[in-house]
Each structure stands twice: as structure tokens, then as C-alpha cells.
């Protein structure tokens, strides 16, 4: 394991912490909705590691994977109540993750969604890297981050056709809108189009017809705050099938 691993993990930790802190300041001092800052944080939680590892690659090994997991657990662990009640910096960071309607499940949903997301994205990233397709992994991450991110404000401001979704560990129900889900579909088409050079003409046509639709359906049927793993799974498996069989 070379020094680039330590550099990449430090950059990831600092990057995620900085995004969370700045978003927390926006919530506290500019009264920005936590629903929006949480979307930014989730986008960063998957985009920043992928981008840093793309720019500062390191040799994969069991030790590196174990340490990477430990760093991830450490990052989540700082949000535990005893820590955030004593450290003002962490309290500000957590503020950007904690919408009132999600309490008292905020940290539980955050942790399980991130674990589920990484259980999907890490094997996919290893496979894609081994087959020279690493850049394609940005497709499901961008669809999730941008599509789901735009879906929140569009659904709040323009959503007229509502439907309900369930949540883990509670009987409470939450609402989504068809207008918000349509944002995921539109962003999916735009993201796939942006990567057209990575596909053959047949693969590109298949990708346009399947990936935006499947990721939109995954977002629509997923539990509240738990769309990340399902969207990654739908987008990642679609890409694998297209690159393997089309």
C-alpha cells in the first residue's frame, strides 16, 4: 500500500467534512432547508470518494479496503450524540443532515443508507476499474446526486401529483411527487447523453432506453431516505448488462 492511499483518504475525509460544515452554516445562518443540504451531502458522500480515487489512484488490496471501511465508519461515528453535543464543529456538520421530520431516525437512516450504497458501489467500482470502465461509474452517481437533488425543490414547489412511500423502522408515511420523479428521468437522459462517447451506437441507444427509466423507478419505490442503494443498483447493473451483452 503506497502513500497515495493515505493522501486520498485524507482528501476524502477533509472534503466531506468541509461540505457538511458549509452546508450546516447555510442551515444555521441562512435558513436553507435541511432537505436541500442533505441532498448536497449525499451527493458529496459518493462523488467525492470516486473523484478523489480517480485523480489519486492507489493499489487495491484487502488492507486498503479494510482501512477505507474504517475511515468511513469513523466519519459516521463523529455524528454520534455524545460527540456532536460536545463538539460545536460536528454539531454544525450534523445540522445539515438532520431534517426535523426524520427525527429520531436521522442517524439510523443515514448510516444504513450509506452502508447500503457503499455495499453496491464498491463492488461495482472494482469491476468497472478492472475492465477499464471506471469513468462510467459516474453515470449512476450523477443521476442519483443531480436527479434526486433537483427532485426535492421541484417536488416541494411544483409537485401536484403526490404519492406515498414508506420508511424503515417506522409506520410513518412520506410523500413524493410525479413531478419530482420526472426530474430523475430527465437528468438520467442528460447524464447518459453526456457519456455517449463511452458507448457504441447500439449500447448508447440501449442505455438511453433503460438507465434513466430504471433509476427513476428505483427512486420512486425506494423507502424514504433510502433511494441511494436502489438507484446505484439499478444504474450499475444496467450498465454492466449493456456493456456485456449489447
How many helical elements? 10
Number of domains: 2
Order of helices and strands: HHHHHHHEEHHH
Based on secondary structure, the structural category is mainly alpha
What fraction strand?
A: 5-15%
Radius of gyration: 18 Å
Characterise the protein shown here:
Helix content is 74%, strand content 6%. With 246 residues, it is mainly α. The protein has two domains: 1-98, no CATH class; 135-246. Strands 1-2 form a two-stranded antiparallel sheet. Helix 1 (3-30) packs across helix 5 and helix 6 runs parallel beside helix 10 (227-245). The protein is globular.
Key words describing this protein structure:
246 residues, mainly alpha, two-stranded antiparallel sheet, 10 helices, 6% strand
Provide a brief overview of the structure.
By secondary structure, the chain is mainly alpha-helical.
Helices, strands, pairings?
Elements: H1 3-30, H2 34-55, H3 62-77, H4 81-84, H5 88-95, H6 106-130, H7 138-158, E1 162-167, E2 170-177, H8 178-194, H9 201-221, H10 227-245
Antiparallel strand pairs: 1-2
